[in-house]
Design a protein that fits this description.
Strand content: 15-25%
Radius of gyration: 21 Å
Distance between the termini: 40 Å
CATH class: Alpha Beta
CATH superfamily: FAD/NAD(P)-binding domain
Length: 430
């Protein structure tokens, strides 16, 4: 019987419950959201001597931070030309450097300093091309990127792609050798322990009902009482509630669905993943998948729908896609099935900054394992006035749309559009 919860949770010891502790009357910094962003910010601020309270409407790490595919590595959604045109050459270079190098370096440093064992394994990530022409366009983009930054990446032709994955589905691809596989639950729960060790108080099951500006900061109304805070950070990303309207209207939730197969044995997994690499696809509604940390299962994710689809439908879609990638598997059992919500911005760029005096770091658009802790750290530094707080992601902009208010009503329509795009892409594939 398929378990409707993240596979990662069974491999990970969760933090001890702290809900029984009384909320402080006043703190220097209150952080809303106990995922990677909020916990990283809490660690940084607490290390600097600030009194820090982190609250979350669920248990700490409940959201996408412990539910994702466990792929750690840099990347950018926009092309280098698009970023340069939008932000200028200097800022674009900063965005690329932080996205690909600085954020990953920071994550590895934190893991080492805090002794966080999260099954880190630098196996690399293969991005499979859906169309033949992508080989040349990616080659040009990669050449440009490697002139700017020391990115370790190489192209694989269609004839060579079996070095990465035993599938004939792709038209070659590119390998990013610096990318690593992790257990995301161990990563976020390890960050939770680190923040607590440095003095932060983290409280789950403590939803925020409202914020009110005061003479000395903010009055934060929670389900467990009122807290005075000098500064407030919204670290809610894809779980931002409508009452936090300013951020909610700039970051919308996109669900991602994941399944884990039954134990297939190490030998079979090695046949399917000869180099143990993680895999993502270039098509818009892409699949992403990898071996489990013990190399006995496949952890397989996809955007089965752009709305919160029923579990049975989503699992059926993922099984179908898994069979498309690996027809040789036949009908295998699924041990776990779950979902999480990523936070997308309309510009496909994250941002660190303030709206009406309230700080935020959000909009990672699928790159949260590295960017969320990095930008949470930067947000904390900005809040305490540290000179090391500068980040190119303060120069990006989180824009909203006039037609987006309380509910992402447009996602089912976007889903239909993407399905049509996928149909055309499949039909015209070369």
């Amino acid at each position: 019987m398929t378990k409707l919860k993240p596979y990662w949770w069974e491999l990970t010891k969760r933090p001890a419950a702290s809900e029984q502790q009384a909320l402080p009357k006043e703190v220097d910094i209150l952080i809303v959201g106990a995922g990677l962003t909020g916990l990283s910010a809490a660690r940084t601020a607490a290390k600097a001597g600030q009194s820090v309270l982190v609250v979350d409407q669920h248990s700490p790490g409940f959201g996408a931070s412990s539910r994702n595919g466990g792929m750690l590595g840099g990347g950018h959604k926009l092309s280098i030309a698009e970023m340069t045109a939008r932000y200028g050459e200097h800022i674009a270079l900063g965005l690329l450097r932080e996205a690909h190098l600085d954020s990953a370096d920071f994550v590895r440093k934190v893991m080492t300093e805090e002794a966080i064992d999260c099954d880190y394994d630098q196996v690399g990530r293969f991005r499979g091309f859906w169309h033949t022409h992508e080989y040349e366009t990616t080659a040009r983009e990669l050449e440009q990127l490697q002139k700017l930054l020391p990115i370790e990446a190489s192209l694989l032709s269609q004839a060579q792609q079996h070095q990465a994955v035993a599938s004939d589905l792709y038209r070659g691809g590119v390998v990013y050798h610096q990318h690593a596989a992790i257990n995301p639950a161990k990563w976020v729960f390890g960050l939770h322990r680190a923040a607590v060790d440095h003095g932060a108080l983290i409280q789950g099951n403590t939803a925020v009902l409202g914020l009110q500006k005061s003479s000395h900061g903010y009055l934060v109304k929670t389900v467990r009482g009122m807290v005075k805070a000098g500064k407030v950070l919204l670290a809610t990303n894809g779980y931002t509630p409508p009452q936090m309207a300013a951020l909610h209207r700039r970051v919308f939730p996109v669900p991602s669905f994941i399944i884990t197969t039954e134990n297939l044995g190490r030998e079979r997994i090695k046949q399917l993943f000869p180099s143990d690499m993680m895999v993502v696809e270039s098509r818009a509604r892409h699949c992403y998948y990898r071996p489990s940390p013990d190399k006995t299962r496949i952890v397989f994710g996809a955007r089965a729908a752009l709305f919160d689809a029923p579990e049975k439908f989503a699992m059926g879609q993922l099984r179908k896609l898994l069979g498309q990638v690996f027809p040789q598997l036949g009908q295998i059992d699924i041990s776990h099935s779950w979902r999480g919500f990523t936070g997308f911005s309309f510009e496909f760029m994250p941002h660190v900054g303030q709206i009406d005096g309230v700080w935020h770091a959000a909009g990672y658009s699928g790159n949260g394992n590295t960017l969320a802790p990095w930008l949470g750290h930067k947000a904390a530094l900005q809040m305490i006035g540290d000179p090391a707080s500068e980040t190119a992601f303060s120069h990006s902009v989180l824009k909203t749309r006039w037609w987006y208010h309380n509910r992402a009503w447009f996602l089912p329509f976007a889903d239909l559009a993407f399905r049509g795009r996928d149909f055309w892409s499949d039909w015209s594939r070369s």
